[in-house]
Amino acid sequence: LAKKIREKFNRYLDVVNRNKQVVEASYTAHLTSPLTAIQDCCTIPPSMMEFDGNFNTNVSRTISCDRLSTTVNSRAFNPGRDLNSVLADNLKSNPGIKWQYFSSEEGIFTVFPAHKFRCKGSYEHRSRPIYVSTVRPQSKHIVVILDHGASVTDTQLQIAKDAARVILSAIDEHDKISVLTV
């Protein structure tokens, strides 16, 4: 049993290392010839996808797609197109793999296989727990203090509440949080 688990773990580690090598090579190429092509997850034509029971939705097993933060720079590194073939190979050779992701500090979120997202409003993957826990794996100790005194306008209070919601949406079960109102 231990041997089978080790073999499976090593297969998945090989997948991660292969992905890492492709991303690093793509980034080196990006420095001289920017890789910025986008395949928006919100605008994928239905004709490019078909239902896949492994994902329980319509997907394209040949391409990845992207969601961008509203603050992403037009020259931000996006390895998605370079990753398509290696991600497709990962899926073929390791059927246990499901969704594969690339997330960048610059605000690019790539998912393979491509599928259509529900695209209402902006998308900010950097505040999602999976991204936050990856870039900062240790638990966080957070104190949110909201001042709702007489000198605070309704607009200021709303901004404070919205900021608190963003913080709260990025926590996970390991974080310690306190909310105080004064």
UniProtKB/TrEMBL annotation:
- Kindly list the residue ranges recorded as spanning the membrane: none
MF terms (GO), sorted A to Z: voltage-gated calcium channel activity
Stored InterPro entries: Ca_channel_alpha-2/delta
Q: Which GO terms describe its cellular component?
A: voltage-gated calcium channel complex
| Highest taxon in the source lineage | Eukaryota
Q: What is this protein called?
A: Cache domain containing 1
Recorded source organism is: Mustela putorius furo (European domestic ferret)
